[in-house]
Design brief:
The structure is a single chain. Helix content is about 30%, strand content about 25%. It is of the alpha+beta class. It is globular and about 55 Å long.
Length: about 260
């Protein structure tokens, strides 16, 4: 099935979903990729590669593709009653329905056991022994409203830590962006633009802080040389534990908000 001059889908009986084939003038060879967020399969091919060769390449890698799909963590959609981590702490989602007069202007209310409300007031009851995220308004729009709120929180908290590390190292950046990056948690471009995955909001605070320090250090060292790691250690001496946590658990952060 064609979806454009440079893209089309190829189905295979042994795959649960079709493969999106994209032609790229920059591609020198065929490459397959499985998205951990959308769970889509993409085959990138050189512009003049025919559909028959693309199909044969997929056939050769069926077992690998199915292993990649099987290894993805089970998705956790944003649904009433689901549990998601917020800054590393498990929260139960509560879809509260239409706002009342007391909730005017609020979107999400967070509560933590023993500590009262964190954002706003008038939240519903806590679940036993844990924290909750209360999403106000029509339940049909609650998943999108929650995602928007989480991205806003990610921007605020990442910006705060980036500014902290930039000041400590005497560096500056031109712009900070929040995206749904799947191949990296952060990036630093040659024009001093910093980009981060909003999914860092699911990780513990020290992990978000590490990624912020990492990308700020790239403003001076666009590499991973000993000089770079010395710079990271200058602003965040105990970064190694957070770095290891991300290596061990980062893939899991892509499962939240994803539907089958």
């Amino acid at each position: 099935m064609s979806i454009g001059n440079d893209s089309y889908h190829l189905a295979h009986e042994n795959l649960v979903r079709p493969v999106l084939v994209r032609k790229s003038p920059r591609a020198k060879r065929m490459t397959l990729r499985v998205s951990p967020t959308k769970r889509d399969i993409t085959l990138t091919i050189p512009r003049h590669t025919g559909q028959k060769r693309a199909g044969a390449f997929i056939e050769q890698h069926i077992d690998w593709l199915n292993r990649q799909l099987d290894d993805l963590p089970a998705p956790v959609p944003f649904e009433d009653g689901a549990f998601i981590p917020y800054q590393g702490e498990s929260h139960r989602l509560v879809f509260c329905g239409p706002r009342t007069a007391a909730h005017k202007g609020w979107r999400v209310v967070t509560r933590k056991a023993g500590n009262g409300e964190r954002e706003g007031a008038g939240a519903e009851h806590l679940h036993a022994g844990g924290a909750t995220l209360h999403i106000l308004g029509a339940t049909d729009h609650a998943p999108r409203r929650l995602a928007d709120w989480l991205k806003k929180q990610a921007r605020q908290k990442i910006t705060r830590r980036v500014d902290h590390h930039a000041e400590r190292l005497g560096l500056s950046y031109t712009r900070l962006g929040i995206r749904d990056q799947t191949s990296r948690w952060g990036s630093c471009s040659s024009n001093r633009t910093l980009s981060f995955s909003w999914r860092l909001i699911f990780a513990p605070r020290e992990v978000l802080d590490y990624v912020a320090a990492h990308e700020v250090a790239h403003l001076r060292e666009m590499n991973h040389s000993p000089r770079f790691w010395k710079l990271v250690a200058t602003t965040l001496p105990d970064y190694q534990q957070a770095r290891q946590w991300l290596r061990d658990n980062g893939q899991d952060l892509h499962r939240y908000g994803v539907s089958e």
